[in-house]
Amino acid sequence: MGYRVGILGATGAVGTEMRQLLAERQFPVSELRLLASPRSAGQSLPFGGEMLPVRPVSATELAGLDMVLASAGASVSREWAPIAVAKGAVVIDNSSAFRLREDVPLVVPEVNPEALSQHRGIIANPNCTTILLCVVIYPLHRVQPLQRVVVATYQSASGAGARAMAELLQQTRQFLHNEPLTTEVFPYPLAFNLFPHNSPWNEQGYCQEEMKMLHESRKIMGIPDLRLTASCVRVPVLRAHAEAVNLEFAQPLPVAQARAILQQSPGVALVEDWQKAYFPMPIDASGQDAVLVGRIRQDLSHPCGLELWLCGDQIRKGAALNAVQIAELLVQKGWL
């Protein structure tokens, strides 16, 4: 059986990856509709051996679809997701529009797949840094309950889209040629620089990205009182995020046991060569499905603490792959 699938935001970095993953993973597509804003429509993109037109999103274009993979921003999703659902589609939304609504499942398939059974037409794809974190720490929490998480993220340009990646490349060329650095997507030059994540601040001094990690992790892992604090930073990397994670458990979790758990965990790849000091790097994580984790060690400041380092492809597992995995589960379980 094939499914009629729409990709909303088809010309963006995540939409492009979604289209490629549907083909790579041989998702049963009988019809694919590529949808975007009027200014992005008009081009043609390859799928299944043919070129498909990109059309402006409309109620007519959404009619008759079985599912919509949306990655066009929160305002677009708020406008069009309810219309798609009314037309009979299930929407897997990559924006922040619905993530914290009680009636919308927020899903990482390796962590809480059962939440999908409760959907009412809209399923939320979590924030990229949250997905990468939960894939790694949830298997540990199942063995030894987590009490506190302290995380610092090192976030690539891809998190701000294809234009941000192009801007980083342009600034790098400008820097190397002693030219002024032009900034359009980011507030400051990213080439050979870093700065706190460029999302709105709250009164407590935390940015929106940091608060997403707190609230979304609690919902996904089912730990409503989890203590989590994050510091999110933009770094001059094209396409994979890294995170330095400090975990505090209710009881000690030996390093050897944590390592053994993660070696057996779905969606995780252990990368540790202590002799060569070789641990996960964005250059290795880019293009990979798995979240790479390593440098697992005892926290010297706390007997119940562990430290670890992870890297994951922000466009892939941090966005497009997670959405496609959700679509695959809906088909497998008959939850469409």
Provide key terms for this protein:
single chain, 336 residues, alpha/beta, Rossmann fold, 2 domains, seven-stranded mixed beta sheet, 25% strand
Written overview of the protein:
The protein is α/β, with parallel strands linked by helices and 336 residues long. The protein folds into 2 domains: 3-126 and 319-333, Rossmann fold (3-Layer(aba) Sandwich), CATH 3.40.50.720; 130-314, Dihydrodipicolinate Reductase, domain 2 (2-Layer Sandwich). The chain is built from 9 helices and 14 strands. The chain has helices at 13-24, 59-62, 74-86, 128-143, 162-176, 208-221, 255-263, 282-285, 316-333, and strands spanning 3-8, 29-36, 44-47, 50-56, 67-70, 90-93, 122-124, 146-155, 195-196, 227-234, 241-249, 268-270, 291-298, 305-312. The protein has a 7-stranded mixed beta sheet with strand order 3-4-2-1-5-6-7, sandwiched between helices. A 7-stranded mixed beta sheet has the order 9-10-8-11-14-13-12. Helix 1 packs across helix 9 (316-333), helix 4 (128-143) runs parallel beside helix 6 (208-221) and helix 4 (128-143) crosses helix 9.
CATH homologous superfamily assignment of the largest domain: Dihydrodipicolinate Reductase, domain 2
Pattern of helices and strands: EHEEEHEHEEHEHEHEEHEHEEH
Write out the strand line-up for the largest beta sheet, numbering strands in chain order: 3-4-2-1-5-6-7
Q: How much helical structure, as a percent, in the residues?
A: 25-40%
- Remind me, CATH topology of the largest domain? Dihydrodipicolinate Reductase, domain 2
Radius of gyration: 20 Å
Structural category: alpha/beta
